[in-house]
Amino acid sequence: MNTHKFTFSLLPILALAGADAAAQSVSIYGLLDAYVTRTKSGAGGVKATDTYTNRAESGGMTTSFIGIRGTEDLGDGLTAGFSLASFVRLDTGQPGRSDAVGSVAADPFWSRDSVVFLRGRQWGGIRLGNASTLMFGQSIASNAFGSSTVFSPLVTVTFIGSPLSGGTGWTNQIIYDSPVFGGLSFNLAVSASEGQGGRNTSGRVAYAGDPLAISFAYQQVKKNPLAFNDGTSANNTKSWQLAGSYDFKAVKFWAHVGQIENDGTEAAPLNVRYNVWDLSTSVPVGPGAILAGYARRRTSDAVAPVPAAAPAGNRQRQVLTVGYDYYLSKRTDVYALAMHDRTETYAAPAPGHAVNASATNFSVGVRHQF
Q1: pTM above the 0.90 mark?
Q2: Mean model confidence pLDDT for the chain
């Protein structure tokens, strides 16, 4: 056997294999976040005295997740790729963010992200699948506390226990992401109805500069009517949000104003508008930053009474958070935060009465990216 001929005959194959491997990239990625917290809470008309609870929880500054993603260079500036990511609760080891609550099902396994995409250098990109909404993406990119559904004042008053239906992510999405033109970009998204009431639509336009950034997002939700434990329901909400930030280098500010309009359902129509605004800041100090933020959601429209124990307040919610985030490395940080959450609820039984509730918590946690 001529070993020289055999070796040389393999060279083209090895070269092609090397080129193919170089054009593809698949990786495991994720973020794990755990914290301990002590909460003091009480509510007039609900509890006569304050109560204290100590807990170990998952996902303080960022909801913990693990995923796999990949890209392939198709040439001529065209890239294909995918992302699959699952939420995980570090405190219990369970998948998803929570178990089923009322008629709201537990998270499917790939609930954080399950998309495939094509992206071109000249024309932008198309994403298909389950992904975050454009409004949620704008919110988490433009406040001092990022994507925290626990501590971010903006995120909690807008998305958590909120009259805004549709949640933070939509299934069956088709999303177009434009290229960036001199700092300007836009996005369009639609979530197909598939026999679930109606389709969801959203749009966003943004300018990202230095030191100024500004963006505007709008969405309408008609899909997946939900019935909540307090007896209310919503499947037709319209909302908008204007976001802006300015970086003075020594300090950075973010601000938002927006509105949520809840039209209820065909069986129980509503016409309630909630105004939302927030202000947050980050001040670099040493290897970390001091963080502070305040947000309020309020309506002056008439609302139907709900059980006094219903979360988040149907008239008003105010959240204030301050703390320090210390970076041990580019991938690992520890944080210490204090948060005050106050709600006003128009409570049952009819004809209704006002119930004010508040809670204060002190938390420390650690976050690691990989």
Answers
A1: no
A2: 88
